[in-house]
């Protein structure tokens, strides 16, 4: 397949010569900057911005939205569109690889969180899952943008490959710089006094590249923000477009309180558990970082040419109680790792930082400020969206499961887009073990390969999300026609993605879901 980018540019030149203004971007020098702020373990409810619809279909504030304080997310949401049904995978590494490759985890086969020390498939997990993670030569968003002339900057948590494998370092999968990324999923410590784990705490998870802050009072979230701002300044000085991952360790455990915000969550007639208060400070510290980044990009004069995607990597891990129940993601059921909506629903905002209708990139991808998109989308959709915006070709042979968000970002309905989502977790142990879920329209089925307590002993759970968005009424026994239809869809989706299945015993044969 020929490289279509130079061809596009020649085509644009011809149009310009002819006096026509094309709808695509005119030249590399004006390529938009892309920022992906990914917050670890932030679910849809861990914010003062409402991401759930109420009964009328418009955003509604629930009690958790009144507890958390995220004024800068509110500021970003006012400039762009936020989604009411945005899904990620239920744990860290699968989502991260989906974002970078545009593929569902069932296809790229990084279906579990990556253990830095090796293969953690679980007793009945598939031997052919991708426990080594990303490797050099894999098609990734930063590797494509790097070839297209972008500075590709990674700051924060990576978790894309285990220790001793190339994916442990973001530099091996398309990034020009890496500050803070390693094979592990949580920091050794959030405190500079601990050297972020190098001097105290969990030393195996010492966050690299931040030695200059050791011994100061700089909380990890702030150190990463300062580094992101520094790298962005360098790219702007070089007149290079940039792609920035600001992938926070916050708000993942360990729940160490961010001292800058601790006082706000202290006083109450009914004192909250210290872990909950610490979690809330991690959320607010992350939000402060977003504000600092927005301010910095405005000062650099690149706000109108910078597109920000803000999202979480899996459902909430807030320490409010049972992750199978209505608790940390209330009113949604479940949290990180679970088979319920609270396991996969995350906040999502997309915004140009400053509206400018004359900016060619904004013309190519208009985003309606202060708007709400109720339609479902997922983390793998960012890949095709960014490729289209930047006129970057997807290499032949690389299957993309995500669908471009151009219509949805305008806050318009996209009737051609199927309301479907596949979530495949053929591993253990986690909040729920060995399961696949399949959403199709109003219905969602959960298949349990080894039925246990969390499934009521059944292979199947079935919910009508339109009538029962918080998954309280299991209809698997009373709606056999819908169960059969949804299970047929689930089986077909797994086959279409070439998924790896759990096995009946270690070294045994693959267990494929059964349509009842
Ligand atoms: Ca995570």
Task: Explain how this protein is built.
The structure is a single chain. The chain has 516 residues and is of the alpha/beta class. The protein folds into two domains: 377 residues, Alkaline Phosphatase, subunit A (3-Layer(aba) Sandwich); 63 residues, 2-Layer Sandwich (Arylsulfatase, C-terminal domain), CATH 3.30.1120.10. Helices cover 25% and strands 14% of the residues. The chain contains 13 helices and twelve strands. An eight-stranded mixed β-sheet has the order 4-3-5-1-6-7-2-8, sandwiched between helices. Helix 3 packs across helix 8 and helix 7 runs parallel beside helix 8. The radius of gyration is 22 Å and the shape is globular. The site of calcium ion (CA) has 6 residues, from loops.
Which fold does the CATH topology of the largest domain refer to?
Answer: Alkaline Phosphatase, subunit A
Question: What ligands does this structure carry?
Answer: calcium ion
Q: Tell me what portion of residues adopts beta-strand conformation.
A: 5-15%
**SSE sequence, one letter per element:** HEHHEHHHEEHEHEHEHEHHEEEEH
User: What is the overall shape?
Assistant: globular
Structural class: alpha/beta
What portion of residues is helical? 25-40%
Please tell me the total number of domains.
2
Low-confidence stretches: 1-23
Report how far apart the termini are.
44 Å
Under CATH, the homologous superfamily of the largest domain reads Alkaline Phosphatase, subunit A
- The CATH architecture assignment of the largest domain turns out to be 3-Layer(aba) Sandwich
**Annotation, overall tally of beta strands:** 12
The largest sheet has its strands arranged as: 4-3-5-1-6-7-2-8
How would you state the average pLDDT, rounded? 94
Helix tally equals 13
